Amino acid sequence: MEPADEVVATLFAAHATELTRVAYLVVGDRWVAEEIVQEAFLRVWRSRRRLRDVDAAPAYLRRAVVNLARSRVRRLVLERRHARADRDAAPESASWVDLRRAVAALPPRRRACVVLRYFADLSEAETAQTLGVSVGTVKSQTSKALRQLQGVLGDREESLR
After folding, report:
1. What contacts 51, CB < 8 A, 6 or more positions away?
2. What pLDDT score does 86 carry?
3. In this predicted model, what pLDDT tens digit does every residue of 119-140 receive, in sequence order?
């Protein structure tokens, strides 16, 4: 295995689970989330010989995953109008199902902000960098998203914290 291939393999081992979780929380479908993460890693692998800053790769991967997920959400909205996607068969608590549905109902940018801030535990600056927006945009979109979630979930918004 070439050194560049080993770097990508190491990145995959260290970040694939987290990135899949982020993608899942944005798109709401486990299989689609896995495809998105695979596509992001494939892009890194294709350009692995040009990879100069290995420390910047996780941020690049997060951004790629979020961008791919947002694109996929736009397509999924059209598909889901015709047929509901199958959900995971694993039993979930009612509050988690309610939270997941409420987050899925958020507009894509707000959803991405909430997922990155509260589920991926990124700072406002990291979230802004990942989404390619300002910190102020992250703050306003997150605030609007939390108000929207509070309206839907009532007192259960503590589930996010």
Report:
1. 4, 7, 8, 44, 57
2. 43
3. 888 889 989 998 999 999 999 9
Contact 113, 14 (CB under 8 A): no
Q: Residue 2: what pLDDT?
A: 72
What DSSP letter does each residue of 40-59 carry, written as one string?
A: HHHHHHHTGGG---GGGHHH
In whole angstroms, what is the distance from residue 4 CA to residue 161 CA? 38
| pLDDT single digits (tens) 76-89 | 666 665 544 344 44
State how far the Cα of 124 lies from the Cα of 115, in Å rounded to an integer. 12
Written as six digits, the tokens of 24 are 């899942």
Q: What is the DSSP string of 119-139?
A: IS---HHHHHHHHTS-HHHHH
* Spatial CA neighbour of 122 closest among 36, 44, 32, 19: 19
Burial of 59 (0-12, 13-18, 19+ CB in 10 A): middle
